[in-house]
Design brief:
This protein has a 5-stranded parallel sheet. It has 11 helices and 10 strands. The chain folds into 2 domains: 135 residues, Rhodanese-like domain (Oxidized Rhodanese, domain 1), CATH 3.40.250; 116 residues, Oxidized Rhodanese, domain 1. α5 links the parallel β4 and β5. With 287 residues, the chain is of the alpha/beta class. The chain is globular and about 50 Å long.
Amino acid sequence: MCSFVINAEIIMNNHKFVVSPQWLFAHLEDPDVVIVDCRFSLADPQLGKQQYQTSHIPGAYYLDLNQDLSSPVQEHGGRHPLPDIDILTAKLAGIGVNFSETLVVAYDDSRFAFASRLWWLLRYLGHEKVAVLDGGLKGWENGGYPMTEITPLKKSGILLGKFTANLQPQLLVNIEDVKARKDSPDVVLVDSRESDRYRGEREPIDKIAGHIPGAVNYPWQELTDNSGVLIPLSVQSQRWSNIKSAKEILVYCGSGVTACVNLLSLELAGINTGKLYAGSWSDWISY
C-alpha cells in the first residue's frame, strides 16, 4: 500500500491532501494510486473530455463535472446538485478505487476548481485518501513529465475496485441549515466567488446578483498563485485567522463547485469546521 509525502513545508505541517508532479511521476505505476482528470469548462461542457481524449497524464481516468460529479439540475438544488451516491460509488469502483485503500489523485487545469470537487466528494463518501495535484496539468507539463492519448482499459461490467460509501453528513449543509445557523455568533458563512460577484457588481451565470445576507467573502482563487501552484501553508493559515475560531464555517459559491477549493484551503490550514452548502447561491435564489 502506498504512502505519500509532499513538499517540505507540507511535511512539517503534517498534511496529506496535495501531491507534487515529482511525487506523482514516481508513482505512475503504483497499483494503490488512481489518477483522475477533472478538466472542465463551464462555457463549453464538452471541452474537458475532448482535451482528455487528446492528451492526459498516463493512466488517468476522466470524470466529468456534469455527468459524473453532479446529478441532473432540478428546480431547486443549484446548478450542480450532488451526484447520486450509488452511481458515483459504482463509477469509482469501475476505475479501480478501493474504499479507504486507494489514493486518488485529482487534477485539472483550473487552479483546483474541479479537482477539489472530487476531493470533497470522496471525503464526503468517507474516503480520506484523496489529494489534488499541485500546479495541475500545467505544473505537470512544465516539469517535462509525459502525456499520452491512450486511455486506461476498463472491462465492461467488471468492477476493478470495491467501494462502499461511509457518508459523512457533518460535511454538508442545505438551505434550511444555512437559514437557521448563518446568523449565529459562532457560525461564519463564507462566499467563495470573486469579489465583484459577491458585491453584486457582476453576475455572468446566475439570474440574480448579490450574496447571501451575512456572508463574508474569501475568493477561491486565493488558494493558488496565477499558475495554479499552492500558496504557502503559512499564508493559508493567516488567510483564515479572523474566522478560524468559529464553531462552524459554512462555505458556498455559485453552485457548490469552487467552494470546495476553500474547503481544501481550510483543511490545509488545520481548520476542520468547514461545511459545504452544496446548492450554494444558485439554490438560494431559486426560492
